[in-house]
Design brief:
alpha/beta; Quinone Oxidoreductase, Chain A, domain 1; Rossmann fold; 2 domains; 7-stranded mixed beta sheet; 11 helices; 18 strands; 27% helix; binds nicotinamide-adenine-dinucleotide; binds zinc ion
Length: 362
């Protein structure tokens, strides 16, 4: 039987989100239905609502979630009803070119549930990042369910499902931050501050946080920034150089999604350093106008980072364990907990810079 539950949808570009009834089908082969316990509000949800990702309205928003498996379809072996899981948007296929050469974290053929969740009139919904977890229950591919230690609180564990994992992975996996590295993070929202926490965990000794908002920079200090720069009143490239003996940082992470910030990250880097782009650009943005000789002359690498290049089955349980041991303060990302009816206001608080993460509790 399909279940009728409450969920939050974006009906059209820019219009306020709505809490409506949705139908969640009984899981088919390879699918699982999950009772959502917590789901964080990520900037990517707002990008969907603003039409910045694609035009497949109506969207069922929410994609940073933890919950309990309610039921499973045929041929599901990785989870069973009652399991505590974090939902991931990279269910790896095991068969594509990347999986076959031993890099499932870059899988080119990730998958989602085959059946569609719908409005009660049958209109199909496009779930954000194939998840759609601003809902009491959601339908996903079983491979999108990652088992983690159930001692972790859902509000905290769910954050690993997107932004916090993307940030930690941008530092530790894509950027390959090492003991003694210098790191500069541009944009200190949930993703950027997670990149800072990841840099600290990896042993970086200089961590420069750049933002336009002093509240974000205050949080950045708590997560491990050794220097903070407000780019409203200080030129950030010179400030990163000043914090690194005039050299620039080994790893510069762009966590805003803006060409000018990418340009700053590019020039704030030491020779042979790495620029990581984790902020999501809108389709109209173009690469900054950088002379090719500057690209060539500095060496190093520019790397986009999807989901922090994580492998959920490896990285979610590991990071939950580090959190439970007191080595990764994931709880500090949860600025507030809210109900399903408060997401529109949470978007506004995000835009005003008042929160790192608002987390919906169900
Ligand atoms: N690559 C991925 O897998 C992935 C995953 C999750 C989120 N994201 C993206 O990461 C970005 C950040 O997400 P978030 O949830 O942390 O958003 P957020 O809104 O919480 O944070 C963005 C931060 O950037 C700061 N900022 C804005 N303009 C700036 C500028 N010119 N210079 C310096 N700082 C500036 C803001 O003050 C804010 O603190 C978004 O683009 C989001 O879509 C990417
Ligand atoms: Zn694959
Ligand atoms: Zn997200």
């Amino acid at each position: 039987m399909p279940q009728t539950v409450k969920g939050v949808i974006a009906r059209g570009k820019g219009s306020p989100v709505e809490l409506v009834e949705i139908n969640v089908p009984k899981p088919g082969p390879g699918e699982a239905r999950v009772r959502v316990q917590a789901c964080g509000v990520c900037h990517t949800d707002l990008h969907y609502r603003e039409g910045g990702i694609n035009d497949d309205f109506p969207f069922l928003l929410g994609h940073e979630a933890a919950g309990v498996v309610e039921s499973i379809g045929d041929n599901v072996t990785n989870v069973k009803p009652g399991d505590f899981v974090v939902l991931n948007w990279r269910a790896v296929c095991g068969n594509c070119r990347s999986c076959l050469r031993g890099k499932p974290q870059l899988c080119f053929s990730t998958f989602n549930a085959t059946q569609k969740m719908t409005l009660t009139d049958g209109t199909p919904l496009a779930p954000a990042l194939g998840i759609g977890a601003f809902a009491e229950m959601t339908l996903v591919a079983a491979g999108q369910c990652t088992l983690v230690n159930p001692l972790a609180s859902p509000a905290v564990a769910g954050l690993l499902g997107c932004g916090v994992m993307a940030g930690i992975g941008a530092s530790m996996l894509t950027g390959e931050v090492q003991r003694g590295s210098s790191v500069a993070v541009f944009g200190c929202g949930g993703v950027g501050n997670a990149a800072i926490a990841g840099a600290r965990l990896a042993g970086a000794t200089t961590i420069v946080a750049v933002d336009l908002d002093d509240r974000k920079l205050e949080w950045a200090r708590q997560f491990g920034a050794t220097h903070t720069v407000n780019a409203r009143n200080t030129e950030p490239v010179a400030a990163v150089q000043a914090a690194t003996n005039g050299l620039g940082a080994d790893v510069c992470i762009e966590a805003v999604g803006h060409p000018e910030v990418l340009r700053q990250a590019f020039y704030a880097r030491d020779l042979a350093g790495t620029v990581v782009q984790v902020g999501v650009p809108t389709p109209d943005m173009v690469m900054p106008n950088i002379p090719m000789i500057d690209f060539f002359g500095r060496g190093g690498a520019m790397k986009p980072s999807w989901y922090g290049d994580c492998l959920p089955s490896r990285d979610f349980p590991l990071l939950v364990d580090l959190h439970l041991q007191g080595r990764l303060p994931l709880e500090d990302f949860v600025t507030e907990t809210i109900g399903l009816s408060e997401i529109e206001q949470a978007f506004h608080r995000m835009e005003r810079g008042e929160v790192l993460r608002s987390v919906v509790l169900l």
